[in-house]
Amino acid sequence: MIQIGDTVLQWDDPLVIAGFVGAAVLLLVVVLLIVAVRSAGRAAQMAQPMMMQMGQLNQTVQSLGTGQAQLSGGLESLSKSQSMTIQTMEVRLAEVQQKMAERLHENAMKSARSLSDLQERMNDTLHGSSEKTTKSLTQLQERLATIDKAQTNIEKLSGDVLSLQDILSNKQTRGAFGEIQLNDIVSKALPADSYSFQCTLSNGKRADCLIKLPNPPGPIVIDAKFPLEAYEALVAAETKEQQARALTALGQAVRVHIKKISESYQIEGETADGALMFLPSEAVYAELHSRLPNIIREGFAARVWIVSPTTCMATLHTMRSILKDSRMREQTGEIRKALRQLHRDVEIIGEKAGKLETHLRQAGDDVSGVLTAATRAGKRADRLDNFDFEELVPEETNVVPLGKSPD
Question: Structural domain boundaries of the chain?
Answer without folding.
Answer: 72-154, 170-329
